[in-house]
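Entry 14. Ran structure prediction on the chain below.
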Amino acid sequence: MSEKLTRQTILETAELLRPYVRKTPVLEVSGADFGLPACRLFLKLELMQHSGSFKVRGAFANLLTRVVPEAGVVAASGGNHGAAVAFAARRLGKKAQIFVPRIASPAKVERIRREQAALEIGGERYADALAASHERALQTGALEVHAYDAIETLLGTGSLAAELEEQAPALDTVLVAVGGGGLIGGVASWYGGRARVVGVEPDLAPTLARALEAGQPVDVNVDGVAADSLGARRIGANVFPVAKRYVDRVVLLPDTDIRAAQAALWDKLRVVTEPGGAAAFAALLSGRYACQAGERLGVVLSGGNTVAVDFGR
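Output, structure tokens:
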């Protein structure tokens, strides 16, 4: 693990972020409420964060600790990171240009527009938007803010884990959805083996699973209902050594399990998540991660940028 990525530097970053991010609530429920063994579930409602996802932590960590030039910042995103960077940039009085792929959800695109960032459509998938954003940064001199593969981003997401441990001490296991790995990299860095950290990926976007099998980051094809948030083609280079050391395992699951988890969270708790935001809970609900009676489980509900609920009815 990088000497820049420690529990102490995560705590320092959390303190720096305190005026800018919400301390999101943790909801404690019993697995029995969902037909599971009577494990204790601690749902970290990061979907209630500014801009609708955990991504704002990494966005502010980058903008507050790096020099932002007159040209501002540029970012590529499936949607959530873009909304977070746009929010942080507007709050700090900086210019922002966001590149998103065509698969980005309308809810996320609308959030970016509301934050008054310059918005560009950069190809079909996240990798295409990333290439376009990099080219624009070279042209303008803007600061690139990577969605997951930057130490500053991992320090920001680590603040979520520090907050979770304060709210729900002595967890046995933490379930975390994986795209490019920015979230699980920060969470695993914080816990450092003191709790099992389990990654959850759609089987149509097995980015971390394939990297661990290969012993190094590799490109994968990505698709599925959560591709806009969990559709990174390659795990982050800064993430991989952390995951190799501290992630207990990776669980793969189909889109049908993710949709079922979204429905169950709404039906039982009236919590609305986007597909990627429900993936960690889907591993539990489907039994692909089998909880044990009495187990203390943290589950990160990472995002809620969706138009799944129609309030016109």
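The chain has a mean pLDDT of 94. Will compare against last week's run tomorrow.
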